[in-house]
Amino acid sequence: xxxxxxxxxxxxxxxxxxxxxxxxxxxxxxxxxxxxxxxxxxxxxxxxxxxxxxxxxxxxxxxxxxxxxxxxxxxxxxxxxxxxxxxxxxxxxxxxxxxxxxxxxxxxxxxxxxxxxxxxxxxxxxxxxxxxxxxxxxxxxxxxxxxxxxxxxxxxxxxxxxxxxxxxxxxxxxxxxxxxxxxxxxxxxxxxxxxxxxxxxxxxxxxxxxxxxxxxxxxxxxxxxxxxxxxxxxxxxxxxxxxxxxxxxxxxxxxxxxxxx
Length: 261
Known about the structure:
Layout: E1 10-11, H1 31-44, E2 53-55, E3 59-64, E4 67-71, E5 75-78, E6 91-92, E7 103-107, H2 126-134, E8 138-143, E9 148-154, E10 160-162, E11 170-173, E12 178-187, E13 190-198, H3 208-256
Parallel strand pairs: 3-6, 7-8
Antiparallel strand pairs: 1-3, 2-5, 3-4, 5-7, 8-9, 9-10, 11-12, 12-13
């Protein structure tokens, strides 16, 4: 069967309970850490509403010309689900259980080019599925080893266009109301490139470990400030005591010299 954008019939159906999902292992050792880091900072910043859905290597499905198609992006974000969370089992079906994902991400781990596949025949490629079937507004491809980041966004014609970065090599995702960009550093004993979020004021959304460190630094600064203030009080007290002692000595010398009021 040939699947094209013009002839595709797309419906939204829940997977049958007996549908066998591919049980492929994660082929990128960094993928779980990269995905967890993205979700953690969103949650800690209060930007992960209870009705939203953040997934990693989790099936997102549609029915294309009567056949189920399931893709499991390395990370995805759905702004709102419309069913109880416990009903989102094994996979997620947009327009049946909630909104279309605002973002899908793939972390490159090989050179087979599947992330760029515009294959129309069944089963369709990832690019075709995200662009023409799901119509995800932001498709992000990240190469963790080199730190190369591509942000593809749907244009007015419904096709992905490579987005130009904004200031500081960051990309604005309107649906998230956040910038995304590459950050180099260490987390979970991995030194390398990470994807990070920044708000519209260019404030970095922090991880839990960074918040703990920030709190520790704030407490240390507070302690030093108190110590400095106490030292200042002590210096002022010592200065007053020294001044009184000098005054007493001067009065004694005056009295000894027969000079008094």
